[in-house]
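Late entry, evening session. Most of the bench is empty. Finally got around to the prediction I had been postponing all week. Sequence below, unchanged from the version circulated by S.P.
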Amino acid sequence: MTSDAILIASGPWDPVPWAAAVRALAPGRAVHIWPDLPDPERVGYLMAWQPPPEAFRAVPNLKAIFSLGAGVERIVFVDDLPDVPIARIVSDDLTQRMTEWVVLQVLLHHRRQLAYLDLQRARRWEELRQPAASEVRVGMMGLGVLGADAAEPLVRLGFQVAGWSRSPKTLPGVEGYSGADGLDAFLARTDILVCLLPLTHETRHILLMDLFGKLARDGALGGPVVINAGRGGLQVEADIAAAIGQGVLKGASLDVFETEPLDPASPLWGLDNVVITPHVAAFSDPKALTGQILDQIAAFEAGKPLKNLVDRAARY
């Protein structure tokens, strides 16, 4: 029996647009939406975002897994994960969207836009001091495809940009730091911390009070700002709220959370100088991304290796 059907297990995302995109681009290929599985043995490919563990167990002839988003932590940490290749989404559309969000958030805090919105609501005409970009030190935590792309326009705008990654990386205009030995020095020179790390055992809850206390306190913004569009599991939200309240952090922009949607009772909602967006920084557009997945499947069936594979040991 040929196992060439596709199963879509998109968790909280609406699976219908993904299935529609597959059917439009590959009308001869069977596509099913979890948990509707008329013939489980025919399924060879899983398109997944936060899939239930039982979805993996239900398809015995699985050949490959394709993440529908940039993150893969809801896949790689599943117990008894099938021993098949896992491919991440890497697309110009997704990367561009993330870069737009990161630059927007950096500029919101740098240009004091949140304070100006408060003044607008109060009908007050007041000029606030805004330092030049060249006075502000941005630290990119994570220099993968998304982090490297977001760093480039920040360099062009004139910010002092540094990057920290697990292993040394060299990017034009970006001061490099790496490994555990380089983390404290990286934090000490950072006014705006942008976190785009993957979620691993080593990075889980890395954004906590101890780290916030190591950020620069002598910067032009009057205190450090944290921006996280990486993974919700990277941050300790109680520590972010406490750090804002105690003045350890001057502000924050958060697109990802430990539990989504964010609880309406979370104190983060009501904090001044905090921006909350509902995991939309790098929105996965089915029409833009499905073609890439189908091209990968076609190449794989022709005997070619898959691209953008996840390192199962490193979990990203």
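Two things to note before I forget:
The domain at 5-89+284-301 is CATH 3.40.50.720 (Rossmann fold).
The chain is about 30% helix and 15% strand.
Will write this up properly tomorrow.
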